[in-house]
Batch of 4 targets.
Target 1
Amino acid sequence: MKKISSPAFKICIILMLAIFITSFLACSISVQRYEETREKMGTFVNIIIYARENNYMEILDGGFTIIDEQSKISSNYDPESSISELNREGLVKSAPGELVEIINISKEYNTITNGAFDITVEPVLKLWSEGLWKESEEMQKQKIAEALKLTGSSMIDVDGSTISFTKKGMEATLGGVAKGYIVDKVIDFLKSRGIKNALVNAGGDIATIGSKPDGEKWIINLENPDNLEEKIASFEVSGEAVATSGNYYRYFDPEKEVHHIIDPRSGYSANLCISATVIAKNATIADILATSVFVLGPQDGISLVENLDGVEAFIIGSDRSIYMTSGLDKYIVNQVTTTGGK
């Protein structure tokens, strides 16, 4: 065996001590909770991270920058966005990869949900936003029938980076998928910066990274639609995403008879649910399925989710009864049997 000379031995000892001290100091700087809320995507976005003090603001800023970048691709409210270009021209060449991915996912779930989720429902949404609710029942039927001729995800063609509509006058809305997709992009960014404990909440589309540093899971409260100051259920999640669709926030008409969740198969507001909450592996799927389940109603919605891996649902029916999938017990920590509704 070769004998290590005294100077070399001393250098090794010094290096080992340096590594030990550096590792000790790094571990001793414990992560702290930091959060920021900003107005984005027409709602309030809250990002919570557990990070070290020296770089937390840079990471939070980076998360909100991701939202701005992705909104330029998928926002129907931005006339310069990629989706707006598609709606205006009926064609986008060299489309951003994110738009291609969103469109392909949307087409896939249009099939999975038997048409309950369809991003090409935009022509019908425009009718309602422009005052269709003021028209006679007969006129509503006529206009909706014409608009429905322009709907159908199968009429979106995706060829590499080229996206096109196969029928003139078609338009798409990403309102039921973009927010969840963007939340997932923020989560991906946080992970790339070494964050192991985080929550991103974009107006009810929520995704998490792990649990809290002490092992405590994230608690997501679902409000009672009949009394928004009360919670009707609470869920514990760790790495999952949660999204809720409800008919008690946004309406087309002042009488609140026509809400914003339109059944793309009929052209009218879906009326079988008050709210639908979905827990899934990511916010994109949770967002899509929360809308889909709401449209399908309690029975068909539960049936759909029970046949999907890694997905659970909590539904409040129009009669204010509670419906849950069989595997929801591992997430739910508080619940009631009805909303105590009106």
Target 2
Amino acid sequence: MKRFYFLIVIISFALIFLSCGKKAQEKPQITIGVSLLTRTHPFYQDLEAGLLQAADSAGYKLLINAGEFDVAKQKDQINDYIVRKVDAIIISPCDSKSIGTSAAAANQAGIPVFTVDIACLAEGVKVVSHIASDNVSGGILAAKALAEALNSEGEIAIIDHPEVESVIQRVKGFEDELKNYPNIKIAAKLSGHGVKDQAFRTAEDILQANPGLDGIFGINDDSALGALAAVEKAGKAGKIVIVGFDAVPEARAAIEEGKIYADVIQRPLVIGRTAIETVKKYMSGMEVPPEILIPCELYKSSKQQVASAK
């Protein structure tokens, strides 16, 4: 009987030892802090879904917030991630330059920083990798679509949002491509801050100052839809060609109805998944490219696509 109890004790100690050894070998879960531009826009909702899908596959924990276009709020979120000592930070900056101080603070804390969709343009900040749409090529697609609709001539306007890097690249591609169409003139370029109601007011100002306007490029779909509302209010529906960027459901519906000519399609799900995969590679000690660009495509109505096929 004593031998039996002695054997039970030995086995118990052995199980405890093996259990402790197993726990010691288990690595703590990787935690990534994410601060997006917004969580209200379909693009960022899809981007978040891509992040979550890839994080689930990798066994990572995500802490997700959004600045909602407020860089001060976004800075607070990043500073909180630093205090919580997350393993990495992913940012979609509300302001490409102003976010630099918080990104630099993460650098000083030894936390790797990655950016998605919008790059950080502040000097002296180390970003491991930037994952985004190829916005320059997207801008080129938008310019070609507008030129096609206008038969390569006319006056156009750009509803801009120059505070963010992705839009800077978009507009660069657009303006560079328009150099191939000397009979298309940019009559105005004003900011709508990427928000529908502000873009509506900006478009109203542009239409009043440029009664002969033929086309509008909205740097995102809020800008394009805001412009559409202003065009309709001014009684110029069907007379001014609008091209947008994002191809969210509301914009696609407007395209099918012939109210917007075309939209540039991004792949936010792919951007989100690629961002997590890039973090994973970096955490594994692999080298990752400083920039990963996801190609864009052009979205037209089904009727236009059939006509193009013929």
Target 3
Amino acid sequence: MDAQTPPVTLDDIEAAAERIKDRVRRTPCLRTRFIREPASRSPLMLKLECLQVTGSFKARGANNALLGLGDDAVARGVVTASGGNHGIAVAYAARASGTTATIYLPEIVSAAAVEKLKRWDADVVIEGAVWDDANRAALAHADRDGLAYIHPFADPAVIAGQGTVGREMLKQSSDIDVILVAIGGGGLISGIATAAKAMKPDVRVIGVEPVGAPTLTRSLAAGEVTTLDGIDTGAVTLAPRRSAEINFDIIRRDVDDIVLVDDDEMRAAARWLWFEMSLGVELAGAAGVAALMSGRVDVPEDAVVAAVVCGAGNDGFA
């Protein structure tokens, strides 16, 4: 691959969609009608990945990555590090493939995520204060035991799997003008932006990060991947201290803007999603709607906006 060849293409995303079609759900892209208090003056749609298998979009990337491994690698088992959702997705993919998964988690992970992992038969290891600490331990484990490691956001196969979200959205509603996507490490927005810009070049893709974890905002401002000194947000699935070159390059090329929202704004959006749409979502799942409700992102009144509701949960009410 030369320097001009993108690491993930629409063809990769189309191939991923075919590969994972018997492992994941085609989630609704729902117009927010019949509600009491609209979140925006613009028409709003919600891509309901909170209804995905295991409760988040992560099932797409995890299954695409695991299904791309050779039989011997699958048989030996897989390992990863996660803030919760990616680990659950890898555990599901491993169980569906008849193999084992070891998931490293930071101390800040929710008890509900740990319980869900165990129900999917994963081996759970708590390591370090934040995801970056858990990830170092997972990499060491994979190297020591010769296991396949599935990165939550910096793997082309994972990005292609996540890109099927954007592909589905524009197939479901080709009139979408703006897509709002929460950013953690950047795997989801990398995939969605790749698909969306290839299918509809004039669509705007806007990322949303927590004020307390502006990982890509800081990196873009610096012109290179940087590491945050610390994390200060309850949205733990959006809180790696560092992204990766592959995500940074795609985001710099295909994402139109990134805005920041604070935890209170995400909680307010999570409450709106519950009371108006009967959806129980984690803070990360409410980030896109929070950007609209708080006025952090400004869109024309006639623009069709779609927010990816990326994960289920109840921490929006914490």
Target 4
Amino acid sequence: MSIRRRRSHSAFTLIELLVVIAIIAVLIALLLPAVQAAREAARRAQCTNNLKQVGLALANYQDQFGSYPPGGITATGITSPTEFANPWDSGANQLCFRAMILPQMEGNAAYNAMNLSINPTAVNNGAQYTAWNTVFSSWLCPSDGKNGNGRVSNGYSSGDETTANWGPSPINPATGKVSDTMPVSNYAGSFGDNYCGGILAGTNLPWETPYNGSPAVGQPRIGWNGYWGTSFGPPDGFTKGVGTMRGFFDYRGTQKTPNIASVTDGTSNSIIVGEVLPSNAADCNFWMQNGGYAGTTVPLGFNSNVIRPIPGSTCSATGGTSWQNASAPVGCRFGASAKGFVSLHPGGSNFSFADGSVRFLKNSINMATYCALGSKAGGEVVSSDAY
């Protein structure tokens, strides 16, 4: 009797086993979000540290040279006046602020390999090609799993409308052909609350005040001339010398570079660099000025890649009437709305301010407050609890 009793209790029953498995599954389901949240917290901390380095490098550059780096170096002397020189002339190197502050971020080797007096895409130069293809981890956000670890396909050679990045590329000395990859970055300089759309989008983007009009009574102005921090403005939107650079960078190099004295809103209230997603824009290339900047007149976190590019359409590199102009629809990675700040962090993005601090701004931030943080000398009053 006692022997049979011991044998009857020597193993789990099927029901007991199923209960244990169910409990383990529930515990895993409860634990998984916590693990994912912990991993994202670590990625966000790394991203914050990266932006801290960029912000301090910009501050050091300003201390060393007496001004912030230019948005792009134009071909001075080719046209008159020189401040309106064409940044795409052969004598312009087109390099954006990222290239200028490499020495302040321990990137001296790559910086020294670049010839700053010529356009790196115009020469068959092995040293420049090697530097071009260097990946800098401090310029990449680990939360972005679509950034190709710093190198994605080049749209000019791959024809990929959906994920490739477009931009001037050097010749590979080994093949004699344009590079088939494009180095990208998750951090872009801010041109502030200048228009992202304005005349580029026909009249304006939906949330912007018309470039040739005034806001409705009681409504704040969203957007200032000229577009992307350039000197261009009314009456036609492209008149030189009318636009004012509200942020820190002019992507075409048409404006005088600002210094710390010009930041009258206070360095702790002025955004200088923020997060972007290369997969949401057609040009986030690392080196060149066309991929280096974004603004605060696009709502924070706006998804500019909701319209799938179709070759030959207005949301396309080959549509003929695309590339940030009036025909490119809102929500297209080839449209002006792609020049906003966005990240894959839940709820918002990290920003570096001109004082070197890094803060997380929520996607729900009020547009007027967001634009006020984008301007360096707008005279707006922004309380610390407004964002």
